[in-house]
Write a structure and sequence with these properties.
Elements lengths: L2 H9 L20 E9 L2 E9 H4 L9 H13 L7 E3 L3 E8 L4 H7 L10 E10 L5 E4 L10 E8 L2 E7 L5 E3 L1
Parallel strand pairs: 1-7
Antiparallel strand pairs: 1-2, 2-5, 3-6, 4-5, 6-9, 7-8
The chain binds zinc ion (ZN).
The site of zinc ion has 6 residues, from loops.
Pfam family, one: ZrgA
Protein name: DUF2796 domain-containing protein
Organism: Alteromonas pelagimontana
């Protein structure tokens, strides 16, 4: 019940069944994540990639019961956006997805076990916003102590921009 489940963790890069950002081989640096925010009228999408090392503490297929539990714990943490990101506006979370599998999802995907030297965790959130959104705050730094930077890019009605977020600088206004 486990080897199927975890294959997704290390094997999602380049597979078609996840909606994730393409991860550049040289883009994987421990302590550094990426975030893309795109506005389409009232629909906002937030896509995040984090090194698995900074989320789980390991990047290999979970081998112990404890590691499997760690994966499940983070999957449930990521199921809502609260601990991850907050848009500064009147927004409702419409959809959340992480590349961490829950048990059932893992069976459906049935990936073969793939071993990579490194792996990222991909998170995708879609919001419906009924007001202007003036910026974003990242909450990940509060509970992922080894995460030092998130390279944020946004493309919103007011324009495009980028910012390098960090624990003392975890919010941006555009
Ligand atoms: Zn790594």
């Amino acid at each position: 019940m486990t080897s199927n489940g975890i294959a997704i963790l290390t094997g999602f890069v380049g597979t078609a069944c996840f909606s994730v950002l393409p991860v550049k081989a040289q883009g994987h640096v421990h302590g550094e994540g990426t975030m893309h925010i795109v506005q389409d009228n009232n629909n906002w999408s937030v896509e995040i990639a984090l090194p698995a090392a900074d989320v789980l503490g390991f990047e290999h297929v979970p081998e112990t019961t404890q590691q499997q539990q760690t994966v499940r714990d983070f999957a449930s943490k990521f199921a809502t956006s609260d601990k991850v990101v907050a848009l500064n506006g009147e927004c409702t979370l419409e959809d959340a997805h992480s590349s961490l599998p829950d048990h059932n999802e893992a069976q459906e995907h049935g990936h073969e076990k793939v071993s990579h030297a490194h792996s990222d965790i991909a998170l995708t959130y879609r919001f419906s916003c009924q007001s202007t959104v003036s910026g974003v705050k990242v909450n990940l730094f509060q509970w992922l102590p080894s995460l030092n930077h998130i390279e944020l890019q946004w493309a919103v009605a007011d324009g495009q921009g980028a910012s390098n977020l960090s624990p003392p600088n975890s919010a941006v206004t555009w």
